[in-house]
Amino acid sequence: GRETHLRVVLRVRPLTCTETQRGDKQVVHSLGDGTVHVSTARHDATFGFTAVFNAGASQEAVFEGSGVRQLVELAIDGFSCTIFAFGQTGSGKTYTLMGPLAQSETQPVAPGLLGLMQRSFACLLEQSRRRGSDLALSASYLEIYNEQVRDLLSPEPLSSLPLRWSKTRGFYVENQLSIEFESLEAIVSLLLQGPTLTGSQRRQTSAHALNKHSSRSHALLTIHIRNRAVSIRFGEVTSSSPRIHCTCPSKQGTLCFVDLAGSERVKETGSSGQLSIEANNINRSLLALGHCISLLAKPRGKRTHIPYRDSKLTRLLARSLGGSGITLMVACISPSSRCLSETLSTLHYASRAQRVTIRP
């Protein structure tokens, strides 16, 4: 119930081979202690975050250093926890969350390259065994593509699902499928590398000038965690010693991973036709998200109406941003001089997000 700030960490990806061959300069430098410096002939700025992971940081270092392990434990304890990745297209958001794209049962990814999702799944099941908890686990997975909400786990062809609101649940997706699982292998097969088309493989992607595997939708994977109620009975029923009956209430928590589509400039990506329509919808929803974050960053007494209804994305993130959940933002940027404008935009966006306060 105590007020706390939204936690923001920054990840700087390495220069790509194309950027190096093109002669791009590295303009982003980590100064340590959660500080990053952007230095060019026309810009000189310093930004501070909870943690900064430079190009040499491993996937494990990001998992441990950003506090995701603690979020998993809090989700088991009944809190609503959200981890979302934000940044320019091609800045490493999907890699950070999921690891390399080429994953299959025959060619599994190297353990060191596993993303935050797989590491969280393993940590969740490990904590369950260590605590001796009787956990019921289930998963739901959806994408927002061109302002249409689609269920990535449904066996039916992808179609738009209605987004509703209620006083008790807030905004929710009607008829969304939720699938139970009991092992790490089961959820990884379901979401990432199954023998048939998995949730992640059904997500809308395309190639353009800045990214060969650009996500064209926002994806939200939610793990629902329920501690089943435990009843304890002992003692003989007599006049002097009645039976003692204790029922412990169940706890229900969630762990949500949000892989936002990357912000992009149509001129830079060379997009046209359908790609241009997708880019406009992506940027429009990210602009709505940025507007909500700017308003939420103001002191509570000076906040005006928060326009969550401006997009499907902000409706689904309303509870994570301004409600009673615990939220971690992973801002991903490129260090390339050619991406300077988008990098500065992401850094300012992430700096504003740090001022958002929540009450878990």
Helix content: 25-40%
- CATH architecture title: 3-Layer(aba) Sandwich
| Rg result | 22 Å
Q: What's the mean pLDDT score?
A: 83
Task: Outline the low-pLDDT stretches.
Answer: none
Question: What fraction of residues sit in β-strands?
Answer: 25-35%
Shape: globular
Structural class of the secondary elements? alpha+beta
Terminal Cα separation, in Å?
5 Å
Largest sheet: 10 strands, mixed
GO molecular function, one term: ATP binding
Main location: cytoplasm
Keywords: ATP-binding, Cytoplasm, Cytoskeleton, Microtubule, Motor protein, Nucleotide-binding
Protein name: Kinesin-like protein
Q: Any chance you could write out the topology, listing elements then pairs?
A:
Layout: E1 4-5, E2 7-12, H1 17-22, E3 28-32, E4 35-39, E5 44-48, E6 51-53, H2 59-65, H3 68-76, E7 80-87, H4 93-98, H5 116-131, E8 135-145, E9 148-151, E10 160-161, E11 163-166, E12 170-173, E13 179-181, H6 184-193, H7 199-202, E14 205-208, E15 211-215, E16 218-227, E17 230-234, E18 244-248, E19 251-259, H8 266-269, H9 274-296, H10 312-316, H11 318-322, E20 326-333, H12 340-353, E21 357-358
Parallel strand pairs: 2-6, 2-20, 7-19, 7-20
Antiparallel strand pairs: 1-21, 3-4, 4-5, 8-9, 8-13, 8-16, 9-10, 11-12, 14-15, 16-19, 17-18
Helix pairs in contact: 3-5
How would you describe what is shown here?
There is one protein chain. With 360 residues, the chain is an alpha+beta fold. The radius of gyration is 22 Å and the shape is globular. The chain is built from 12 helices and 21 strands. Helix 3 packs across helix 5.
